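User: Here's a structure from my thesis project, written as structure tokens. My advisor, Dr. K., wants to see whether a designed sequence matches the one we expressed. Can you design one independently, without my sequence as a hint?
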């Protein structure tokens, strides 16, 4: 068990893969998607395709038979989907019953696309490049540690700066002291490729795989394991602690069914207020959908029509969907994302333009952690990391570097703790919009838990996006990457609570104060204590300026120190005299 020394990096530098050399995830496949004409009312069956409207589909069936292909509904039975859409009143959403996936011929997808798109009953067809995790890789020396018979895993929570108070972190520590703030009653499903479900730090609330077949590649497992660890790593004095350790987490693999079907199936297993996390991105139109080790031009999944439809289905049901904005270094405001590809349906509008219909998902960018985290510097705190996509559509940011969590480093044992057994791997260098997204999910799950505990309805997708945009620690400028390249604010759970639960915040005028320079027990932080509304309220880690201002106000004999508080914690302070 060692801490690995990493090579120095330029602030905000990208460089995915081992030592910045690039890497490839194995096992992901292209998807050939067919969009039917509404008037054809296609119905895919084991013996072929028929038309509920009586249209002639013989040419389509002949083509499928000759090429040994099968057409299957992407989101399930057409009749069930149409009934469900009518019951939910999602008239503004794409018709899910029109989407099909072609089975077979994966190595000839582009050739088949053009031919099937020209057949009667088919509106259009398009090929989606393989989806991969939106992470970056850093690999140090291989470490060896035998789990059985070796010393117990140390407590790594002191390295999880994203748990700390704002602006450094999202203030998970504060949330844990509030009813529901550990995520109790909230379920999160992570959509990606694979996980190490037997990890020693994920036993308490992990529900397992609910859809799809996990990929077998260790790089995929490390990625999924890292994501789950950020959200709900077990509490217990060893390893890491998740932002919401009481939330139930589950896994949905897109392998074998495609990304849109996985998103749709995950959402159908959740209740309003629960969360779907999409930990994938894919090559966009900037480089003609080219698969690249450097991930340049990779974008969020919702740009593709079927993924957009699946996400819209979820958010229309009240499910929060959080998605990685992608590591392509792209401005999502660029006109290239407004131009409709010829093979996309006519109704498609660029989803990254806020003026167009929205999927309703929360898009997450990657921000720099505080300089000096783990001895490294990636630029000013909360500045956009160079690889992160950005634009008006991006709602919030999370830590995009130096995230301490469960799992290994790309396809190797963990750089924080390795060894021959995956169940005890930990990393200090989980990164990308992949590491940023579960940080935002954790903040939202804590808020949903507190709302449930207060007997309030959970946030809707629209409300969640509004709260993330209205609160939080603001994005900072960096050389060459100004805050106008929007990735949004880092969530601040405490600030969001004052917006969501204003009745949980009291106020009053301070009657006396106590400047506790040396707190007892010593584990407590330095505090400024103010007696307000019949009780002592605490301001932890007060700045010297606040201390001096309070002392001056009371020394003057007529203090006017107005305090806002939640339980015994001070959340706001105004000194006027």
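Assistant: Designed independently from the structure alone:
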């Amino acid at each position: 068990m060692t801490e690995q020394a990493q090579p120095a990096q330029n602030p905000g530098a990208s460089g995915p893969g081992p030592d910045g050399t690039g890497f490839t995830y194995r096992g992901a496949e292209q998807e050939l998607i067919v969009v039917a004409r509404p008037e054809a009312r296609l119905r895919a069956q084991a013996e072929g395709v028929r038309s509920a409207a009586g249209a002639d589909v013989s040419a389509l069936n002949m083509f499928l038979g000759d090429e040994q292909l099968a057409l299957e509904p992407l989101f399930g039975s057409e009749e069930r989907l149409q009934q469900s859409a009518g019951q939910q009143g999602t008239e503004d959403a794409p018709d899910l019953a029109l989407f099909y996936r072609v089975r077979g011929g994966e190595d000839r997808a582009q050739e088949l696309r053009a031919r099937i798109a020209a057949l009667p009953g088919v509106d259009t067809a398009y090929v989606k490049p393989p989806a991969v995790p939106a992470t970056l890789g850093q690999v140090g020396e291989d470490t060896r540690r035998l789990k059985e018979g070796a010393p117990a895993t140390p407590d790594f929570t002191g390295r999880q700066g994203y748990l700390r108070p704002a602006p450094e972190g999202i203030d998970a520590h504060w949330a844990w002291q509030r009813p529901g703030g550990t995520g109790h009653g909230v379920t999160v499903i992570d959509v990606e490729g694979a996980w190490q479900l037997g990890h020693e730090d994920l036993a308490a609330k992990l529900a397992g795989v609910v859809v799809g077949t996990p990929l077998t590649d260790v790089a995929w497992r490390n990625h999924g394991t890292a994501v789950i660890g950020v959200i709900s790593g077990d509490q217990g004095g060893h390893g890491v602690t998740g932002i919401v350790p009481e939330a139930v987490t589950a896994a949905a693999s897109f392998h074998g069914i495609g990304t849109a079907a996985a998103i749709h199936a995950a959402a159908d297993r959740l209740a309003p207020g629960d969360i779907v996390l999409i930990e994938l991105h894919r090559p966009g139109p900037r480089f003609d959908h080219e698969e690249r080790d450097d991930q340049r031009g990779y974008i969020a999944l919702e740009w593709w029509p079927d993924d957009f439809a699946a996400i819209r289905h979820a958010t229309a049901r009240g499910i929060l969907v959080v998605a990685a904005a992608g590591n392509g270094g792209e401005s999502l405001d660029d006109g290239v994302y407004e131009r409709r590809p010829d093979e996309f349906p006519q109704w498609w509008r660029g989803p990254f333009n806020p003026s167009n219909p929205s999927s309703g998902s929360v898009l997450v960018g990657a921000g720099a952690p505080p300089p000096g985290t783990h001895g490294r510097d990636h630029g000013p705190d909360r500045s956009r990391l160079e690889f992160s996509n950005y634009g008006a559509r991006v709602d919030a940011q999370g830590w995009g570097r130096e995230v301490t969590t469960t799992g290994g480093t790309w396809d190797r044992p963990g750089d924080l703790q390795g060894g021959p057994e995956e169940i005890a791997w930990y990393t200090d260098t989980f990164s990308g919009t992949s590491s940023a997204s579960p940080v935002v999910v954790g903040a939202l799950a804590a808020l949903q838990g507190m709302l449930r505990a207060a007997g309030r309805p959970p946030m809707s997708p629209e409300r969640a996006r509004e709260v993330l945009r209205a609160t939080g620690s603001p994005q900072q400028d960096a050389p060459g990457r100004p805050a106008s390249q929007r990735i949004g604010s880092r969530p601040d759970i405490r600030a969001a609570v004052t917006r969501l639960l204003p009745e949980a915040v009291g106020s009053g005028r301070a009657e006396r104060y106590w400047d506790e320079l040396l707190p007892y027990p010593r584990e407590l932080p330095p505090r400024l204590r103010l007696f307000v509304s019949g009780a002592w309220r605490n301001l932890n880690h007060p700045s010297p300026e606040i201390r001096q201002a309070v002392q001056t106000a009371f020394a003057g004999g007529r203090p006017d120190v107005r305090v806002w508080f939640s339980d015994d914690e001070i959340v706001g302070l105004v000194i006027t005299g």
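When you compare it with your expressed construct, this may help: The domain at 132-140+153-500 is CATH 3.40.50.200 (Rossmann fold).
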